[in-house]
């Protein structure tokens, strides 16, 4: 015979004790708390609040504009003859483009649009034109890089027959060889930071040579310049070697954009 089970009045049935024990065991365990922190998003700091090495991405405007004083304040006293013997610079770049010389000449002779696509040029304004051809003969150009920014007068020569457009600026300029000369002054030329600055575009059609396709034109860019003192030469030294290449690359992009937009 099995012994009779004795149940106390008011006691829970044996089967109901298991869940209670499990709950008690769970309560004795350490409580794992999940702390949720709310991130207070702050607005992006201004470039002036960032460390120097983080400022570059914030300082890439499409068009450079410097509200700086005239660079003449940096020039040593005594006029242009300051004892500077810095060498003359001659930078060249060339490229063959799949466009006609006539189309390319329209772009290089539109001096007023230079500031829209050429690097280091912040503003370009034509101030005089040939009454017969309508091509520009004089312009105000504002060159800028880093802390340098200066507006000066540029004499412009456009020769569609030879495919040449040349702009010459500077305190003293001799058209024959690009050298410094007292006889090379023209009105307003003594405003700039250069002894002289010559930017010459030259176009030449390329003989197809039996190759299929449209016209081909060789674009030659030559930049000649000399600074009035060593300070300007030092500031521009970091980029002067790339100047012509960047200019002709920007010119190619401009031509492509205009051609595709037709």
From TrEMBL:
Ranges for domain Coenzyme Q-binding protein COQ10 START: 97-252
Region annotated Disordered, chain positions: 34-54, 70-89
Domain of life per record: Eukaryota
Molecular function (Gene Ontology), one example: ubiquinone binding
Organism: Penicillium chermesinum
InterPro entries: COQ10-like (IPR044996), COQ10_START (IPR005031), START-like_dom_sf (IPR023393)
GO biological process: cellular respiration
GO cellular component, one term: mitochondrion
Name of protein: Coenzyme Q-binding protein COQ10 START domain-containing protein
Assembly and binders: Interacts with coenzyme Q.
Function in brief: Required for the function of coenzyme Q in the respiratory chain. May serve as a chaperone or may be involved in the transport of Q6 from its site of synthesis to the catalytic sites of the respiratory complexes.
CDD domains reported in the protein's UniProt record: COQ10p_like
Membership in a protein family: Belongs to the COQ10 family.
């Amino acid at each position: 015979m099995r012994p009779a089970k004795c149940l106390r009045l008011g006691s829970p049935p044996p089967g109901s004790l298991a869940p209670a024990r499990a709950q008690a065991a769970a309560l004795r365990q350490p409580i794992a708390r999940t702390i949720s922190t709310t991130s207070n998003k702050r607005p992006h700091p201004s470039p002036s609040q960032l460390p120097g090495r983080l400022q570059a991405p914030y300082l890439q405007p499409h068009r450079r504009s410097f509200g700086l004083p005239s660079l003449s304040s940096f020039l040593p006293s005594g006029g242009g003859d300051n004892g500077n013997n810095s060498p003359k610079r001659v930078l060249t770049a060339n490229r063959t483009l799949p466009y006609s010389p006539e189309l390319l000449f329209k772009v290089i002779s539109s001096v007023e649009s230079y500031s829209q696509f050429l690097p280091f040029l912040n503003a370009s304004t034509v101030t005089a034109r040939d009454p017969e051809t309508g091509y520009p003969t004089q312009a105000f150009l504002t060159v800028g890089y880093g802390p340098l920014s200066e507006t000066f007068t540029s004499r412009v020569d456009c020769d569609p027959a030879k495919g040449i457009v040349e702009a010459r600026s500077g305190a003293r300029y001799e058209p024959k060889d690009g050298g410094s000369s007292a006889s090379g002054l023209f009105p307003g030329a003594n405003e700039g930071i250069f002894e002289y600055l010559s930017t010459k575009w030259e176009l030449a059609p390329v003989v197809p040579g039996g190759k299929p396709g449209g016209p081909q034109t060789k674009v030659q860019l030559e930049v000649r310049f000399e600074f009035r003192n060593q300070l300007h030469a030092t500031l521009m030294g970091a980029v002067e070697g790339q100047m012509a290449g960047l200019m002709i690359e920007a010119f190619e992009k401009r031509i492509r954009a205009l051609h595709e937009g037709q």
